[in-house]
UniProtKB/TrEMBL annotation:
Keyword Nucleotidyltransferase: no
Pfam family, one: ECH_1
GO CC term, one of those recorded: mitochondrion
GO terms of biological process kind: fatty acid beta-oxidation
Pathway where it operates: Lipid metabolism; fatty acid beta-oxidation
CDD domains linked to this entry: crotonase-like (cd06558)
Family: Belongs to the enoyl-CoA hydratase/isomerase family.
Keywords, ordered alphabetically: Fatty acid metabolism, Isomerase, Lipid metabolism
UniProt-recorded name of the protein: Enoyl-CoA hydratase
Highest taxon above the source species: Eukaryota
Native source organism of the sequence: Antrodiella citrinella
């Protein structure tokens, strides 16, 4: 029976457990999940807490709003710049610090120990792209509509899209076109360029169900093996082949000593499903 994790929910984020070792994290700020400062700060804090839980092995990120994943930034709630110093140099340093803090919060799924699957439906504009690119796997319903929206409001996207998308997408021309024009694109377009790995027929319920099924498969594997795989894949994205080979050698010099390895072998020989202990004895206190 899945454990309840509702106590980890906040004002704008809902947390539940649809299956053993699997969490569903839902964006829940009506009417369209527009992000203001308290929302994105809570988002980062929730993922930080989830990463400390001893027996969570996969997370699905979705929206509880029927018509949207997220409309992006709520510009009406971003008036804190009025409180910054009037001197341009000092003001720039304050803005820089705020942007870096924002980046850190939105990158929280990437830094989470276990894999995070984004389940997207409806509108997914602007910050939505930053959010899902920090996830490990991205599914989209056929009703999804994406846009790298920042140029339409006078910005270069600065929370992760321009850093991650060129490294993930196989069509660099399309990346540039979408970033320059801010035009809408579909889930099929997203799959074509490499942003999305699976397009699910339907809307919210269908894509969330598909993501949970994949999360359940991941959660059945050795958590030590899955965490190591995530760490090595992220390292490979940002380093050379030789550097990554050395990194995984160092990583596995420790992790090959885990009981998960012998447990997996024993289960395979006995033709039984392996069971694995929690990563920690109890949740870390933050």
């Amino acid at each position: 029976m899945a454990t309840s994790y509702s106590e980890l929910s906040g004002e704008f984020i809902k947390v539940s457990s649809p299956a053993d070792h699997v969490l569903l994290v839902e964006l829940s700020r009506g009417p369209v999940n527009a992000f203001h400062v308290p929302f994105w700060k809570e988002y980062g804090q929730v993922f930080l807490r989830l990463s400390q839980l001893p027996d969570v092995r996969a997370i699905v990120l979705a929206s509880s709003i029927a018509k949207a994943f997220s409309a992006g930034l709520d510009f009406s709630g971003l008036d804190n710049m009025n409180t910054y110093d009037k001197d341009p140099g000092r003001r720039a340093l304050q803005i820089r610090a705020e942007v870096l803090t924002f980046q850190e919060a939105i990158a929280a799924p990437e830094k989470c120990l276990c894999p995070v699957i984004a389940a997207v439906h409806g509108i997914a504009f602007g910050l939505s792209i930053d959010i899902i690119l920090a996830c490990d796997v991205r599914y989209a319903a056929t009703d999804s509509v994406f846009s790298i929206k920042e140029v339409d409001v006078g910005l270069a996207a600065d929370i992760g899209t321009l850093a991650r998308l060129p490294k993930l997408a196989g069509n660099q021309s399309m990346v540039h076109e979408l970033a320059y024009t801010a035009r809408n694109f579909t889930a099929a377009d997203g799959k074509k360029m490499g942003l999305i790995s699976k397009v699910v027929e339907g809307s919210r319920n269908e894509v969330v169900k598909a993501a949970i099924e994949t999360a359940k498969v991941i959660a059945s594997k050795s958590p030590i093996a899955v965490i190591g795989t995530k760490k090595v894949l992220l390292h490979a994205r940002d380093h050379s082949v030789q550097e990554n080979q050395e990194y995984v050698a160092n990583w596995n010099s420790a992790m090959l000593q885990s009981s998960d390895l012998s447990d997996s072998f024993a289960a395979a020989i006995a033709r039984k499903k392996a069971t694995y202990p929690p990563l920690f004895k109890s949740a870390a206190k933050l």
